[in-house]
Amino acid sequence: MSTAERYAHGLVLGKFYPPHAGHHHLVRTAQERCERLTVLVCAASVESVPLADRVAWMREAHPGAQVVGAVDDIPVDLHDPAVWEAHMAVFRGAVPGPVDAVFTSEEYGTELARRFGAEEVCVDPGRTRFPVSGTAVRADPAGNWEFLGPAVRAALTRRIVVLGAESTGTTTLSLALADHYRARGGVWAATGWVAEYGRTYSEEKLAAARAEDAAATWEDVAFTSAEFPVIARRQDAAEERAARTGSPVLICDTDSFATGIWHERYLGGRNEEVEKTAALTHRHLYLLTDHADVPFEDDGLRDGEHLRPWMTDRFRAELERTGRRFLTVRGDHETRLRAAVEAVDELLREGWHFADPLPERR
Hints:
Layout: E1 7-14, H1 21-33, E2 34-43, H2 51-61, E3 66-71, H3 81-94, E4 101-104, H4 109-116, E5 119-122, H5 134-139, H6 150-156, E6 158-164, H7 170-182, E7 192-194, H8 197-212, H9 227-245, E8 249-253, H10 256-267, H11 272-278, E9 285-289, H12 308-321, E10 326-329, H13 333-350
């Protein structure tokens, strides 16, 4: 077979649990050789990454391919013809048309191609180009971070949110925490930090007020309820961008959940749209900065020194009510940073928990 030979319709099949650089190399190689390529994502119900997520990740990475998904709960036994027939029923149900070539790096590729009546194209079976496997990623995502694409990184990143009342050191602590992990080097050197968008928004509102009246102060600035969902969505968008490009941990100076408390502070009551936005993203740990031990500083955008105890209590109450994992940090800066690092390290030691795929019968 000539390396220049092309096929009308190629197939790449796998669990992609989760997708990694080796998978993407296989798909790119197949795309170069096929007029049309189907990528079939097969997931078992026992696995902990939803099929829909894997399909979405592969579609994002390979927009030129047709990515389809199928649930395959049939046990794996490469030596049992009846099991093969059951699997093929799933595969053909998802890919009903003729297949000219099956691209694979797995030992079952020869039999899979035969059953499709297609030619087998073996791509880097020794995984020399990208020394990684789904098993290795599931066992140690951080150790294989370089092989993961942006969408998978965003899904696996451990998101840490620092939140608290006005002038309680949230920005100081979050910046210091990000610097701490960057200093560890290696994969951690890319640890991201997400700024508080609400502050940027507030600065813009104050600037707009001063454009109309040079003597305007923060007391002249008013918020409407409709502004808070905007702040929440933009905060989350910045967080998502950072999670796609950083290390296995991301440090955020507030989030959309906190935006709901700020709505209470300025307007009273909750905002349903903010609540819905906050529910879309899972954060793994919250660090609540207590107002005690931190003197209030008026930087021109603050006027709530008297409200700090109330806000601390509201943050704590909502964190508890919603079942979020959190730690209240107190004391001087070094004490707070030390407690924060210990909490994040504990989270990282717990690791990533992937359910085992269906076992292979031998």
